[in-house]
Write a structure and sequence with these properties.
By secondary structure, the chain is α+β, with helices and mostly antiparallel strands. It has one domain (2-65). 43% of the residues lie in helices and 14% in strands. It is built from three helices and two strands; from the N terminus they run H-E-H-E-H. A two-stranded antiparallel sheet has the order 1-2. It binds zinc ion. The site of zinc ion has 8 residues, from strand 2 and helix 3. Zinc ion (ZN) binds at residues 13, 15-16, 18, 50-51, 53-54.
Amino acid sequence: MRWDVLVEAMFTCQMCGTLERDTSRLVADHRKPHRGDPVLFWDRANLQCLCEPCHSTEKQKEEQATPAGVWW
Ligand SMILES: [Zn+2]
């Protein structure tokens, strides 16, 4: 499944467009967080190929967004 996503994206990051030959540095990311929902989890359209730096930036943004919400 993860492999399908990476092959289909031709090992190119969907965010920054970097062609990453080292597949260990590529991740199949869920656009919409699946939160344990098997439908979203297995939804092929909900997956995108991201490189490590972009993936960690995305995750950081999500983590930073949560404490910001607390202040509201
Ligand atoms: Zn990237």
